[in-house]
Amino acid sequence: MKSGQVHYVPSYGTREVREAICRKVRRKNGIRADFDDTIFITTKLAVFASLFAVSEPGYEALVPDPGYFYSEPVILSGGNPVSYRLNDDFSLNIDEIKRRTADKTRAIIVNSPSNPTGKVLSKGELAELFEFCTEKGIYIISDEAYEDLVYDNVRHFAVGSLESKPDKVISIFSLSKSYSMTGWRAGYATASERVVYLINKFLENTITCFPPFIQKASAYALDNGENIIASAREEYSSKRKVLIEKLDNLPKVECNQIEGAFYAFPKLKNLGISATEFCKQLLQIKNVALLPGTAFGRSGETRARISFSGSLEQLETGLDGFGDFLSNLD
C-alpha cells in the first residue's frame, strides 16, 4: 500500500498474481492452466460469476444435499437449483446425479473437502462424474476452498487435473482457509479462456477489480506459503482429534467421519425436538452456536454443523456446554 499499489488494475487480476496462480495449480493440483485460464476472484463470487458464465434462461444446476449454500446463486443467476442426495457417508451418488440431470442442466456443483460434512471426494468418484459430464457437455463447478485441510492419509484431488487443458471444469480456490485470510476476500479460479473472459465481464460490471495490494500478498502466499499451511493443518488436526473424542462420548450423538475442512456434521438422535429447535435452545441456554443441518438441505434434518476453526479453549468450552445440554435434555 505504501508503494502506491492502491489503484485500479485489470478485472482479471494483476499479472503477478495470475502467474502465481498458474504456478500453484500446475505444481500442486495438476491443473494444466495457462495464464489466460486464470482469474483472481473470491470464492463465493466465483461460484456466482461462473453460473452466469455458463447459464442460459431457465437453466438448471445440480447442488449437493447436504451441501453449502449454492442454491441462492443459482436462483440469482436466473436458474433453478436441483438438489442431488449424497450417499450416507456423503460420497457422490453418481446414479442419483444421473437421475437428476435433465436437458436444461448446465452445471453440477461439487465441494471437496466439504462444508458442512468434512467429506473429501475420491479420485475415482470425481473421475466417474467427469466422464459423465464430458459425455453430456455439462460443466463441473468445483469448490475446493478447503483443499489444504485434509487429515490422516486422505488426499485432496482436483477434478480439473483430468483435463489436458481447462474446458468443462471450473476450479475454484481460496486463500481464506489455508492462510486465514478470510477478510481479504482473496481467491481465484481456473477455467477455459472463454469462461474466464465471461467471468471477467461480470467483474467489470460489478466490483471492477480487487485491491492490488491484496493480490500482491496473495501472490506471495501462493509461492511461499507451504510451511504456514502445514502448521495450520497440524493445529486443525489436533483440534479434530479432541472433537471426535468428545463427540464419541456424548449421548444421542453419532459423529460422522471428518476427512477434511474444519467441520463435524454429527447426527443427533432421540432429541424429542427438531435439530433446529435444539440448536436454538442450545444457543439461548448455553451460549453455544451450532448450525442446524437443515440449512444445508433436507438431508441435514437430523444433523448439526460444528466448527472447530476457533481456539482449542473455545472448542472445549463449547463442547462442554453442548454435552451438559444434552445430558439435561430429558
Short description:
This protein has 330 residues and is α/β, with parallel strands linked by helices. The chain has ten helices and twelve strands. The mean pLDDT is 96.
Model description:
The protein has helices spanning 15-29, 43-54, 71-76, 94-100, 123-136, 193-204, 212-224, 226-248, 275-286, 312-327, and strands at 38-40, 60-65, 80-85, 105-111, 139-143, 169-174, 187-190, 253-254, 263-264, 267-268, 291-292, 304-307. The chain has a seven-stranded mixed beta sheet with strand order 1-7-6-5-4-2-3, with helices on both faces. A three-stranded antiparallel beta sheet has the order 9-12-11, with helices on one face. Strands 8-10 form a two-stranded antiparallel ribbon. The termini are far apart. The chain folds into two domains: 15-224, Type I PLP-dependent aspartate aminotransferase-like (Major domain) (Aspartate Aminotransferase, domain 2); 227-327, Aspartate Aminotransferase, domain 1 (Alpha-Beta Complex), CATH 3.90.1150. It has 330 residues and is an alpha/beta fold. The radius of gyration is 20 Å and the shape is globular. The model has no long low-confidence stretch (mean pLDDT 96).
- Assembly state of the chains shown: single chain
CATH superfamily of the largest domain: Type I PLP-dependent aspartate aminotransferase-like (Major domain)
Strand content: 5-15%
Q: Give the overall average pLDDT.
A: 96
Count of domain modules: 2
